[in-house]
Design a protein that fits this description.
This protein has 357 residues and is an alpha/beta fold. It has 2 domains: 4-289, Metallo-beta-lactamase, Chain A, CATH 3.60.15; 297-346. 34% of the residues lie in helices and 23% in strands. The strands form 2 sheets. Strands 1-15-2-3-4-5-6-7 form an 8-stranded mixed sheet, covered by helices on one side. The protein has a 7-stranded mixed sheet with strand order 8-9-10-11-12-13-14. The longest helix has 56 residues, at 291-346. It is elongated. 41% of the residues are buried. Bound molecules: zinc ion (ZN) (2 copies).
């Protein structure tokens, strides 16, 4: 996986290097949570991805995976106030169900920006109201800022540029592109491709050059004909999109709730036959974008400096050698001259010779 590395089961933490984008999957299941022995390895929580970038904490979707993040942040809140941004693709249950159980919302020291499609405010208020839930959204002690956006809206979160586009899904959905210093992660979930046609050009544009594309792959290609209009895609369509957009890594998510661990592994195997950069997203999986590239840039710069230094050193050595050689030649000449003089002195002087005679 060039330019990135993956770890597993890591806790939330802000990367030291602000150029790095750290992506962590907290929920990878579609439709409804699916706990149990047959799904334990992939995970049964619904859609939720944490992205740490440029000192910002951004969360894509508030499915049941959000609860775990809340538990972790609860410990951090004891030390200092926290701020985070929650971006919703759409408002189906599997993308909002973690919100009432997200601990930081109950902490006065927490500031949460909630961004999502039109209807976000009304839906969250309904979700957190009697008789469905005992605590109303308006009574939460945290600082909430709610913004409803149309697909195509662009904005920024600190240094992270966010752009969006419409996805094909019943009731509509929004795909997000997060970009920081050339590093890009795209979240396109839930989305249905149109059979027989290539990827949606707007989505290709959104995903263009992404380091990581997180894509809805709920159905198998052989299942999709029976699920047309349900709003989901296949790994094969994800591969088509990844190839069309020049994506480096394709992360397949929104796994069907009935899909067992070994079946998800089989989807990953089939996808990799078509596109080696494909992986099935699993709960706890972490990807880092930027460290590889930054590291390689630094390495190239270091080598360039070393090469210049080495060339200068060679030049200096050559100059020193030349100077030594010149000195040696001068010394040799001087020695020769001295020898010649001595030899001349040793020769019998013709006049002295005449005198002796
Ligand atoms: Zn969904
Ligand atoms: Zn949906």
């Amino acid at each position: 996986m060039s330019g990135s590395r993956s770890k597993s089961r890591s806790k939330s933490k802000t990367p030291v290097d602000p150029r790095v984008m750290r992506i962590r999957f907290l929920g990878v299941r579609g439709s409804i949570p699916s706990p149990g022995a047959t799904t334990a390895h992939v995970g049964g929580n619904t859609s939720c991805v944490e992205v740490l970038a440029g000192g910002q904490r951004i969360v894509l979707d508030g499915g049941t995976g959000l609860r775990r993040l809340g538990l972790e942040l609860g410990l951090e809140l004891v030390r200092r106030p926290i701020q985070l941004h929650l971006l919703f693709g759409h408002l189906h249950w599997d993308h909002i169900q973690g919100v009432p159980f997200f601990g930081p919302l109950y902490q006065p020291g927490c500031t949460v920006s909630l961004v999502g499609p039109v209807g976000l405010g009304q839906t969250l208020r309904q979700q957190m109201s009697v008789p469905s839930f005992p605590v109303e959204l308006s009574r939460l002690p945290s600082q909430l800022c709610l913004t409803e956006i149309p697909p195509g809206f662009t904005f920024s979160i600190g240094p992270v540029a966010v752009s969006t586009t419409a996805l094909h899904h019943p009731g509509g959905a929004i795909g997000y592109r997060l970009e920081l210093e050339g590093q890009v992660v795209v979240h396109a979930c839930d989305h249905e491709h149109t059979a027989g046609q290539g990827p949606d050009p707007r989505l290709v544009e959104l995903a263009r050059g992404a380091g990581v594309l997180i894509y809805d792959a709920q159905y198998l290609p052989e299942e999709h004909p029976g699920k047309v209009g349900w709003g989901h895609s296949t790994f094969a369509q994800g591969v088509e999109l990844a190839l069309a957009a020049g994506v480096r890594q394709l992360l397949l998510t929104h796994h069907d709730p009935g899909r067992r661990d070994e079946e998800v592994a089989e989807i990953e195997r089939r996808a990799r036959l078509l596109f080696p950069g494909a992986s099935a997203a699993r709960e706890g999986m972490v990807l880092e974008l930027g460290r590889g590239e930054a590291g390689r840039r630094e390495e190239r710069a270091r080598r360039a400096v070393e090469a210049v230094e080495a060339a200068e050193a060679v030049e200096a050595v050559e100059a020193a050698e030349a100077a030594e050689a010149a000195e040696a030649a001068e010394a040799a000449e001087a020695a020769e001259a001295a020898e010649a003089a001595e030899a001349a002195e040793a020769l019998p002087c013709p006049r002295r010779r005449a005198g002796v005679r």
